[in-house]
Design a protein that fits this description.
Two copies of one chain form a homodimer. The first copy, chain A, is about 50% helix and about 10% strand. Chain A has two domains: about 170 residues, Rossmann fold, CATH 3.40.50; about 210 residues, Dehydroquinate synthase-like, alpha domain, CATH 1.20.1090.10. Chain A has a six-stranded parallel beta sheet, with helices on both faces. Chain A has a two-stranded antiparallel sheet with strand order 6-7. The first copy, chain A, has about 400 residues and is α/β, with parallel strands linked by helices. At the A-B interface, strand 1, helix 7 and helix 8 of A face strand 1, helix 7 and helix 8 of B.
């Protein structure tokens, strides 16, 4: 097992009615004037905005709105938030929304404490995060896990490139997770969120060094299994509290710092890398891009690293209950189950069906590997990426 | 799913050579004079003491020793530590050892900030923990999980009763987990530690309300499975780094605050309660008492709550790979596997073999239920407890 560190300082208040902890928690972390960051207004339609502001008003905590944060949040939205925060002399950021809103709020939290442009603070920038405003989240859509991790993804101005921002200062101070807040999430986004969480686990599972990490592998398998069981329940009944609760907690656990990739050789999240290029070019929903890429990526990787057939077989058996005793066959069945799972979640069948143009595949492969090869079990260079995109195009 | 909160602020540095983080981590939390708390001197024999003090000396951090902390730590040892800390004007406690040492250090951390006697601060006492000295741990024996939780168990003066101390202030600021530090733990204690960790998971698994907690159940199953796989490897080769690493991380995860009992109806840790009485009366190793109680407790509970047969069956299949399709039979096979596992770990076969006198069973049952019935799937009163002890006596 490789060395690792574990650190998850966020307090989670999970369950019905946990919004009651909002005001006292903000005060606990010194917040006296809050910037409320949110998206396109669905929280106004479903009553969450009113419930949140009511809690703030009852406690006498003033707030200003930073609304209109878009999916795949563009840096312009982050800059807008930084300006609002400064103009209004806020000292606390409360993100109310899903992954995009929380990710944007993290970048704002770092940006308000930095003199230069916030793009400098991205992982590929020249700046350094030396401080951040305290932030917290109220989750209204499960999937990204941003509510319990220290990272975010922001869309830059050049070619809509995705940039990562990450620092321990960016852990939310607290996150309020009320499964009932996700009842009104549209089916498409609920299912995309389920696959996003599932894919985070895949990215941490199929990683070199997994021979020595039974604890991480086996906890991961359990978590994936819980998503496979509960996502169809959410599909069947969007107001199934326990199913929503399991999906919400699984999504958070998938990214929490005890990290299922901890102790392995490290992953650069190749499926996410390839998916981000699809989102950049077509503004596709993140979880959908992952569902489109995952089966082809896994099948291609298995061909490249037959020595990891045992891992694919364990995955098949322990996540999907495949009973085949022969490893090579079990491994194939497991990948087929992933594909089947994406279809259960009503994801598009392939890139073609999702509206991707075949003549863009080369460009996508080029961009996905422009900083070098990706991959977690074996290197994926441009040619490999192109083959994966090709298979995903019409499989 | 029931509401819950999640909070685990401890930073873990896991792996070979992580002791290198010691001095900087102490300074990060403001430590300028350290009280080094440890047990009977095994850390001097195996070189860990020298390695730790070398790190402190290199960094110019003064320290004083608080040695001789005993297993099932008596409150006298805690009081001694409080006195040493105060006399020497320390401002940081570093526990180097296993669960007993870390538990005692937690009580010391609370006690040094309290004017009255430390026993007041136990869960059944009249005092309140309003502050605690910063403490950290260097783990030298896996099992209790005290390195990543906020509780401890102290043996009182009256009848050697076990008392719990618990508060968020008592989370270690950081814990250094180097699996190589556990290579020299004697077989008996290594195996008792494995079962202790396993039993923490059992206590969180067989709890009312498990119908709605797939995430917690399935992660728990994975973690139990990792212990079942790796404990025999430690037995076969005490210097198997990866096996020791898996046991160490599984033990920590078993008690970390994301809590496999979170979202259930709550457990009062009945097996621990019944085991503590054995430790109190016979000064038995904690993990051994659990191995003696668990199979009988599970079998008896299953008889009482046949409506939870599905949970016992899931346990059998997902932890021990039982393939029986009929739930009632699978459930029985799972319990038999637990018993078999205790014997694999070379635990005594029954209470009789462990030296317990048959005429003490009534007293044990009386003590275990003196504050009311225990049990997590159904109430266990004195008569139930007596029947469980009886079965454990000669099964």
């Amino acid at each position: 097992m490789e060395n690792f560190s574990f650190y998850v300082p966020t307090t989670v208040h999970f369950g019905k009615g946990q919004l009651a902890n909002l005001a006292s928690s903000i005060k606990q972390f010194g917040g006296t004037k809050v910037m409320l960051a949110y998206g396109g207004g669905s929280i106004k339609a479903n009553g969450i905005y009113a419930a949140v502001t009511d809690e703030l008003e009852k406690a006498g905590i003033p707030y200003v709105d930073c609304d209109g944060i878009r999916p795949n949040p563009p840096v312009a939205d982050v800059r807008k938030g930084i300006a609002i925060y400064r103009e209004n002399h806020c000292d606390f950021i409360l993100a109310v929304g899903g992954g995009s809103t929380i990710d944007a709020a993290k970048a704002m939290a770092a940006g308000v404490c930095y003199d230069g442009d916030v793009m400098d603070l991205m992982a590929d920038g020249n700046g350094e995060i030396k401080a951040a405003a305290p932030l917290a989240s109220i989750l209204t859509m499960a999937g990204t896990g941003s509510e319990l991790d220290m990272g975010g993804v922001i869309t830059g101005e050049v070619n809509h490139k995705k940039h990562t921002i990450m620092h321990p200062f960016l852990y939310p101070k607290f996150s309020i997770l009320d499964p009932a807040f996700t009842f009104s999430v549209p089916e498409k986004h609920s299912m995309a969120g389920c696959f996003d969480a599932f894919d985070h686990l895949l990215e941490c599972y199929f990683v070199a060094g997994s021979e020595s990490t039974d604890v991480q592998n086996m906890m991961n398998e359990g978590l994936m299994r819980s998503i496979v069981k509960n996502a169809p329940k959410v599909l069947a009944n969007p107001e199934d509290y326990d199913a929503r609760a399991n999906i919400m907690w699984a999504s958070s656990m998938a990214l929490a710092g005890f990290q299922f990739a901890a102790g392995k050789k490290g992953s650069n999240w190749p499926m996410h890398g390839m998916g981000h290029e699809l989102s950049s070019l077509y503004d596709m929903t993140h979880g959908i891009t992952l569902a489109l890429i995952a089966p082809s990526y896994l099948a291609y990787t298995l061909e490249k690293v037959p020595e990891y057939t045992w891992l694919f077989a364990a995955f098949a058996r322990n996540v999907f209950g495949v009973t085949e005793v022969e490893d090579a066959l079990a491994a194939q069945l497991g990948i087929a189950k992933v594909k089947e799972f994406t279809l259960t979640l009503k994801m598009p069948n392939n890139l073609k069906e999702a509206g991707v143009a075949e003549d863009k595949l080369d460009y996508l492969a080029e961009k996905a590997t422009e900083w070098g090869s990706i991959g977690a079990l074996c290197p994926i260079n441009k040619e490999d990426a192109l083959e994966i995109y090709r298979r995903a195009f019409e499989n």
